[in-house]
Each structure stands twice: as C-alpha cells, then as structure tokens.
Amino acid sequence: MGTVDAVRCLLCEPALLDTYGEELPLIDHLLQTAELLWEDGGDAELAVAGLLHDVGLARRSSELHHARDGAQLALSLGFSTRVAELIALHVTAKRYLVRTDERYWGVLSRESRATLVEQGGPLPITEVEAFESSGHFDDAIRLRLADDMAKDPLRGARRVEHLYPIVDRALASSTARQDDQRR
C-alpha cells in the first residue's frame, strides 16, 4: 500500500469520529488545522503536520504521549523528520505559550486547559530558551496556534480528498531530501 493510501486509511479510522472532549469530531479538527496552515501560506510539510498532529489520540495514546506517538507514525509513513518533529513539538509549543504569553490561556479550549495538566503544565522556565532556539520553533508555534483555532464546529471542513495533493507534495519533499542526503 502506498503512503497516500496509508494516510487515506488512517484518516478513515472510526476513532477519528470521536470528539475527545471538544465540540467537533477529531477528523474535522485535523482537517481544519491543515487547512488553516495551508491557507496561511504554510508549506506542504507544515500542513501535513497539522493534518496528523493528533492522530496519536485515535491510536489511544495518552495526552502525555500522543504527540510522540503521532510523530513516530508520521516517520513510519515516510514523512520527513521535520513533519515528525513538528507533530512532536505541538504540545511543547502549548506549554511554552502558556508560560510566556499571559493571554494564551484564554485562547485554549476547556479540554485543552484540562489536558495541559497531564501534559506537564506550563513549560519550565529552564526549558524555554532551548525551545526558542530549536530549529522548528516558529513552525511549531504556527502549528499550535492553528491547532487552537481549528476547533470551530461551525467552520466545518472540506472533504479530506482535497488534501491528498498536499500529502503528495510533503512526501515528495521528504523523498527529495532523503535522496540529497544519500549523495
């Protein structure tokens, strides 16, 4: 099975119809996140990170581990380490924003506030500088903010099929990067 087919199967899992405490099914949240990132000028890898950032929840990962598990899944599907790292960092970005932006708490949904405790609470001050200097800081923050905005049950989401060309682009980018590294 090709990777796009594997993503298609993944996004059809019944567990994605669960709301996980939010006001819309997880699949709609994932689609909205990817769409917001793409519409805001994000590249294909960033949009795919948005599309897959919470799939760990559908695999019954805990709130604490869903980002890590989603990142591992993205790698197993053939996506780049950048896609995987962005998925892995979306919880760290939430914890960072809670620590550094006093207005951010008001942006979080009730469920996201509740899960923050399980995810470790605000990022420790000793970890803030390391996160800020990480290579994916800006895109991790973009993903996190789109994640927070993508919980609107009235916005809806287009059908997943319109994102498959973006998935193809992200895979092509990953393949090209791997080929360059082999040379």
UniProtKB/TrEMBL annotation:
Domain called HD: residue spans: 27-95
InterPro entries in alphabetical order: HD_domain (IPR006674), HDIG_dom (IPR006675), OP_Dioxygenase (IPR052567)
PANTHER family xref list: HD DOMAIN-CONTAINING PROTEIN (PTHR40202:SF1), PTHR40202
Protein name, as recorded: HD domain-containing protein
Organism, scientific name: Ferrimicrobium acidiphilum
